[in-house]
Write a structure and sequence with these properties.
Blueprint lengths: L18 H12 L6 E6 L2 E6 L3 H18 L4 E4 L4 E3 L2 E3 L3 E5 L13 E2 L3 E7 L4 H17 L4 E6 L6 E9 L4 E9 L4 E2 L9 E2 L1 H4 L5
Parallel strand pairs: 4-7, 8-9
Antiparallel strand pairs: 1-2, 3-6, 4-5, 6-8, 9-10, 10-11, 12-13
Length: about 210
């Protein structure tokens, strides 16, 4: 996969999209949501989600602090609250890693960053079947199709809590070759990219549950 430093392609606003995708894209751009909500386009459908619960935001906060310290002084940084765009899809990851200066990846319409500049995405699963399916299945496929190198799922709602690290995306199949899953309380290390060597442990997720 090309190194991030050599990639300069910005995502077009609606070039290359089907007529239906263009309609969905324009509808998404025109949406005005109440405070505390955001809209995403996932597998061709607009999905509106509220701000997460405290436990969700606390996990994201702890992870961003830890990743920020790990990446300090380097060329990459952890971000959130930003649209990541690939083709006709747009997501707002709970956390992602991109260039510390990501200006070259800002989309032509200025609404977000191209997925070409994203090296890792983290999703913290929210309660409810629809939310769980979004992070475990639909976003998992979208990130693979976009060729994002690492996708991490922190899941309070799988058994007693699990962390899944997905690597080696297959963009043609919307799936991943490398799948490593551990229960809460077990260390798992990011194997590649700017966060290579970063360990997720119970300081982020809490201890193994009974």
């Amino acid at each position: 996969m090309p190194d991030i430093a050599t990639q300069t392609e910005n995502a077009p606003s609606d070039e290359g999209l089907s007529e239906l995708e263009k309609v969905v894209w324009q509808a998404w751009k025109a949406m005005e949501l109440p405070e505390g909500y955001h809209a995403e386009i996932i597998e061709g459908a607009i999905e509106v989600s509220p701000t997460g619960r405290f436990s969700h935001s606390q996990t994201v906060h702890l992870l961003r602090e830890a990743l920020g310290e790990f990446l300090r002084g380097g060329d990459f940084a952890a971000r959130n609250d930003t649209n990541v765009v690939h083709g006709g899809s747009s997501w707002v990851p709970d956390l992602f890693i991109t260039a510390r200066d990501p200006e070259r990846y800002v989309t032509d319409d200025g609404l977000g960053l191209s997925a070409a500049g994203v090296r890792l995405v983290v999703e913290v699963v929210s309660p409810g079947k629809r939310n769980q399916d979004r992070d475990r299945v639909r976003k998992r496929r979208e990130c693979a199709r976009a060729g994002i190198p690492v996708y991490v799922i922190i899941d309070d709602h799988d058994a007693q809590g699990t962390v899944t690290v997905l690597t080696e995306p297959r963009s043609d199949k919307g799936d991943w070759v490398g799948v490593h899953q551990v229960p809460y309380g077990t260390e798992v290390t990011i194997p590649e990219g700017p966060a290579k060597g970063f360990t997720l442990d119970e300081a982020i997720t809490g201890p193994r549950r009974a």
